[in-house]
Design a protein that fits this description.
single chain, 307 residues, three-stranded antiparallel beta sheet, two-stranded antiparallel ribbon
Length: 307
């Protein structure tokens, strides 16, 4: 049974200086892990685009815009819905996109960026949504790996022999967080670790079991949205809702639910609609083909060479 999981101290490198503008004097692995996840996710998206014969240049541009919208809106939702008092204290925090991110907010931002770009380019949405899901899934998995390492999603306090229980650390005098620096032991869930384990299983199913190459546009997005939405909605019931050791400001609740749970319900509804209700349309497969782009480039090169 997965009980009594050891608390692994977050690796940290203290810098001899403070990075200007960012106001950071140390490095932690979270940002590096997220960057790796983004890079791998982009390659997974390009592999999907190649299999589906999507215009590669259009796929790259679309990924750029979902990253821009995703990170900005992820930060805004994190601040506005979880820590609104920070905006009152310092409105400039809305521009500090590195200072707090919401995963579900990132999904929402990516959705807006995707639709904005595809509307401009007059391209069908669902096939690109499936491409994005392929990359976002692996990117989110790496992100939750980072969360589990830095322990930034503390769950409720539980008994030591509880399934998935972990001894929670305290901040030591040197700035590191270790369980050995605690006067009294506290055991709780690590929601980042729990979601990471779930996402690894979902990745294995989608990449190696589910026939995504033959799936109709939107079905992959529907499956992942519904499955992840249900899981995330349930996980947030294990989140700490009181001020305790390691939790100075619990997540805001609205009618008893966290903002992430409301977004999760939207994911579930969208997933059910795409999987079971929406009927395929002819325009779903009317996307710009990479083979056509390559043919045009060859014709242009031939015409230039003959002139």
């Amino acid at each position: 049974m997965l009980a009594a999981i050891p608390f692994i101290p977050t690796p940290r490198i203290d810098l001899p200086f403070t990075i200007p503008f960012l106001d950071v004097d140390h490095l932690e692995p979270f940002g590096i892990i997220v960057a790796i996840g983004v890079l791998i996710g982009m390659q997974v998206c390009l592999k999907y685009a190649k299999v589906k014969n999507l215009d590669e240049y259009m796929a790259r541009d679309e990924m750029f815009w979902i990253l821009v919208f995703g990170f900005i809106i992820s930060h805004w939702i994190s601040v506005l819905f979880y820590f609104p008092e920070k905006v009152v204290e310092d409105p400039w925090v809305l521009l500090k996109v590195w200072n707090g991110l919401s995963s579900v907010g990132g999904f929402f931002g990516a959705f807006i960026g995707m639709n904005w770009y595809l509307w401009r380019m007059r391209q069908p949405v669902l096939v690109f949504a499936d491409m994005n899901i392929m990359g976002l899934l692996i990117g989110e998995t790496f992100g939750r790996l980072g969360c589990s390492i830095v322990h930034d999603h503390p769950g409720k306090i539980v008994a030591p022999d509880t399934f998935m229980a972990m001894p929670w650390g305290c901040r030591c005098e040197d700035g590191w967080i270790r369980s050995s620096c605690c006067v009294n032991e506290v055991w709780r869930y690590d929601l980042g670790l729990m979601e990471f384990i779930f996402l690894v299983g979902l990745c294995l199913f989608i990449y190696f079991v589910y026939d995504w190459k033959k799936s109709k546009p939107g079905k992959l997005t529907g499956l992942v949205s519904m499955t992840y939405g249900i899981a995330r909605f349930c996980f947030d019931f294990f989140r700490e809702d009181e001020v305790t050791r390691g939790v100075g400001a619990p997540d805001m609740r609205y009618l008893g639910l966290t903002p992430a749970q409301y977004f999760s319900l939207a994911f579930v509804l969208a997933g059910v609609w795409l999987l079971f209700i929406r009927k395929p349309k002819e325009k779903d497969t009317d996307w710009a083909l990479d083979s056509d782009r390559i043919a045009r480039e060859k014709e242009a090169e031939a015409a230039k060479a003959s002139s």
